[in-house]
Inverse folding.
């Protein structure tokens, strides 16, 4: 029965997996063994005599593949003829490190996260452009022209007032509403400008975020 890899998340030599790989037993040397335990990062883990770490967690230069074997009957070295199996061992002092299997998982996770970020960024841009289009289509008259036309309106041209107190109050209220309308136009223009600036900042931050993630890997 092949030894199974004890690294969390690794399924080397477990039931249900077709791939069989070499698994190296924990070293007897205490200092080196402690370095292995630190490398696999399993809290309070005490390896049994059958526990090991598979070759996927060592860098390629530390995995030694020997293709020669000693014939015990004759005492001669038999050269590898291409039909036998490699004998796989480790370089002295080898310690488990981040290798292709771990990097592959990390890269896969990164690609998934990056893809979601890009999709979210594109969705945000589409939504922002849609809002800007709806906003512009609702304005049959540009704000500057609307303001100019509104300022040219004379209240007296539309409503006839007499000199009664109630009509004087109404006229005063209309002037206040007119000023309030102009104030709201000013606020709207400022908010619209701010909306565009924030949209540009968001695009820049999303681009920087993606670039930083790419540098990590």
């Amino acid at each position: 029965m092949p030894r199974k890899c004890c690294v969390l998340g690794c399924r080397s030599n477990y039931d249900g997996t077709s791939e069989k790989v070499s698994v190296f037993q924990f070293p007897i040397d205490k200092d080196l063994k402690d370095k292995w335990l630190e490398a696999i990062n399993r809290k309070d883990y005490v390896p049994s005599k059958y526990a090991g770490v598979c070759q996927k967690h060592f860098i390629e230069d530390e995995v030694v593949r020997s293709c020669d074997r000693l014939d015990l009957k004759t005492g001669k070295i038999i050269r590898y003829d291409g039909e036998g199996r490699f004998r796989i061992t480790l370089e002295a002092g080898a310690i488990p490190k981040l290798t292709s299997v771990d990097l592959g998982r990390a890269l896969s996770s990164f690609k998934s996260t990056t893809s979601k970020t890009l999709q979210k960024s594109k969705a945000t841009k589409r939504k922002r452009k849609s809002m800007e289009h709806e906003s512009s289509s609702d304005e049959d008259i540009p704000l500057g022209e609307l303001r100019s036309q509104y300022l040219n309106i004379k209240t007296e041209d539309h409503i006839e007032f007499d000199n009664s107190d109630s009509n004087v109050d109404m006229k005063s209220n209309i002037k206040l509403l007119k000023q309030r309308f102009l104030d709201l136009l000013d606020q709207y223009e400022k908010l619209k400008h701010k909306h565009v600036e924030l949209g540009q900042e968001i695009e820049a931050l999303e681009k920087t975020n993606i670039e930083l993630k790419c540098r990590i890997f």
Q: What stands out?
A: The chain has two domains: 23-97, 113-216. The first strand starts at residue 23 and ends at 25.
